[in-house]
Amino acid sequence: MCDARAFLPQMVQLGATHACQVILPSAEETVERLSEVVLANAPAKFVAIGHGLGGDVVMDVLRRAPERVLRVVLISTDPLAEAPKTAAAREARIVAAKSGRLVQAAAEDYPDLAFAPGEWRDEVKALVADMVLQLGEGVYIRQSRAAQRRPDQSKTLRRALMPALILAGAEDGLVPVRRQEFLAGLLPYGRLQVIPGAGHLPMLEQPEAVTEALRAFLSGPMMLRPARR
């Protein structure tokens, strides 16, 4: 439930040297269909960056067309399928959204444990709430369905032979660092970088740190040795 504003700080800083394109595939309700939209609208070769459900979509892009992805960045991303208990809880939020309680449902998707305590916490939460309202009930329901049905991408990641950066908020209560460490370990050339003072939305909670991490990664070597385990 994020629009382009989720990456605005990074686009402002990196846009002078890199062509930035935001793809918001909001009309589909499976990860597989969402990845089709991305591939239909992306350049022939590109660096893929995804956050949360967007990371799930990026992983499916790697499954479909790894030869088109030069580098990959996954932020606050879970590589596994959604647990049945979590999917059931999501169903209750879908019902709430359908009955006109979209803000309440989205607030349960982004509880306080999703955000690191800090000076800008309230502002980030307010921005998330506004993005949710702008995208609306239909997008919320479709994205919730996509999250419920997302596939386990472990096999895909093991075959992904491009440079890969995993960015994890140190205080992410939704996708803990240990899960993202596991993700990085699946990638032959994966590297985990933990962002201090950030939760599930490090791009907004610690924008400068994320921008610098992306800048360094984008300027790094293309030929890499497999990550040490």
What can you see in these coordinates?
It is a single chain. The protein has 229 residues and is α/β, with parallel strands linked by helices. It has a domain at 4-80 and 152-218: Rossmann fold (3-Layer(aba) Sandwich), CATH 3.40.50. Helix content is 49%, strand content 11%. It has ten helices and four strands, in the order ααβαβααααβαβαα. Strand 3, helix 8 (177-186) and strand 4 form a beta-alpha-beta unit.
Structural class: alpha/beta
Q: What's the CATH superfamily of the domain at 4-80 and 152-218, by name?
A: Alpha/Beta hydrolase fold, catalytic domain
CATH architecture of the domain at 4-80 and 152-218: 3-Layer(aba) Sandwich
> In CATH terms, what is the fold-level topology of the domain at 4-80 and 152-218?
Rossmann fold
Instruction: Write down the secondary-structure element order.
Output: HHEHEHHHHEHEHH
How big a fraction of the residues is strand?
Answer: 5-15%
Shape: globular
- The tally of strands reads 4
Spatial strand order of the main sheet = 1-2-3-4
CA(first)-CA(last) distance: 34 Å
